[in-house]
């Protein structure tokens, strides 16, 4: 499997959907992405035996962002060939904002966890 290789997932809930190899993890696993808003495949690790490589390849760099992968899909002309539905600009912006909001919420949750654990440690130290 090469970076940029277009594949079809053959197993799991994303079975039958197109994805792009964006990083080779080891001899058995690769990192793939659809991106989700185009093909329905979110960025994840996949076993290479669960992927059916196609003859097509996108020009993307290793660890490319979903936006870069989307641009590569557009340049290749394969969106129309595979019958994929390109999200509108408004939908795309909304999904990207939701993605950023989720990351911010996760960071906020981690910060709160750290503060809570620090407070617990201080209480424990006071008791001793």
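^ Assign residues to that structure.
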């Amino acid at each position: 499997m090469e970076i940029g290789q277009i594949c079809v997932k053959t197993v799991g809930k994303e079975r039958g959907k197109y994805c792009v190899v964006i990083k080779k993890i080891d001899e058995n696993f690769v990192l793939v992405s659809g991106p989700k808003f185009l093909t329905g495949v979110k960025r994840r690790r996949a076993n290479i035996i669960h992927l059916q490589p196609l003859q097509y390849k996108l020009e993307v760099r290793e660890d490319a962002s979903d936006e870069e992968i989307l641009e590569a899909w557009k340049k290749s002309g394969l969106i129309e060939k595979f019958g994929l539905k390109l999200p509108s600009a408004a939908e795309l912006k909304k999904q990207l904002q939701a993605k950023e909001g989720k990351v911010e919420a996760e960071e906020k949750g981690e910060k709160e966890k750290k503060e809570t654990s620090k407070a617990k440690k201080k209480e424990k130290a006071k008791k001793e």
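The first helix runs from residue 36 to 39.
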